[in-house]
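Key idea: predict the complex, not the pieces.
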Amino acid sequence: MDNPLFRDYEKLVCITILGKPFQVPENNICLRAFQFISPDTIPYGRFCWNQECQLCRITYTMANQSGIEPRSVLACKVIVAEGMQITELADELRYNLMGVIQPSEIPPVVENLEK
Ligand code: FES
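Result:
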């Protein structure tokens, strides 16, 4: 696959984002996979792409690893894997993926009401 944006890959892997299935290129970081899914928004997000801004934080579990605690990671650091189930997205990701994940599918943000 000769797209310089993506690391070399032989196949697409299946992941879910907030329960919705997608196929993305293996061997790539999650944020790049999100760009594969939504090329018209992710490049224009406020992402640093180098693990500093924290705007790409996600929580995920693996479909084939029941009983394992969900992991909170940076999408610009972790490599996508077959069966990755992304269950939470930072607000910047939610905003930029809104076109591929309908607003009705995105759980509401829980405000911290304690002061
Ligand atoms: S894009 Fe800034 S920390 Fe991941």
